Amino acid sequence: MEILIIVKEVLLDQLAACHDDESWIKPSITILNDVPVKRQSGKQKASWNETIRRLSNGFVRWQEVIMNCDDSKLEKRIPSYFNAQWWGVISNLCIHNAYHIGQMMLLKKQVQKYRA
Predict the structure, then answer these.
(1) Residue 84: strand pairing partners
(2) Closest Cα partner for 11 from 96, 112, 91?
C-alpha cells in the first residue's frame, strides 16, 4: 500500500472522529445535537439547526475532497502556510477541530452543572 493512500485513510479517519464517528472523543455532531435548545425561540432553534447543518456539510465536503484528490495534491507544499505539505495542513485542521470539540464539551458540562 502506498504511503499517500495510508495518509488519505488517516485524514479521513481524523475527520470522521471530529465529525460523527464515536471514538475516544465525542464527535462534534453528538455534542451539538445534545445541546438543549428548549428555551430558545423558533427562530433561534432554526438558526442553531442551520449552524449544525453547515458544520456537518463542511466536514462532508472535506472528506469528499480528500477521497477524490490526486496523491500529488497531498504532497504539494503551501508556501503561505509554513511551506507545509497539504496533507499536514489538513491534519492540523483536524487537531484544531478536536481542540474546539473539547471546548464545546467543557462548556456543555458547565451548563449542565449550572442547571442542576
Answers:
(1) 78
(2) 91
Here the cell at position 87 is 496533507
Q: b/e map of 26-58 (b: 16 or more CB within 10 Å)?
A: bbbbebbeeeeeeeeeeeeeeeeeeeeeeebee
Write down the mean pLDDT value for the chain.
Answer: 89
Assess contact for 94 and 18: CB atoms under 8 A.
Answer: yes
pLDDT of residue 38: 66
Q: Which amino acid belongs to residue 16?
A: A
Which among 72, 95, 80 has a CA at the least distance from the CA of 8?
A: 72
CA distance 6 to 115: 45
**Whether the Cβ atoms of residue 62 and residue 15 lie closer than 8 Å to each other:** yes
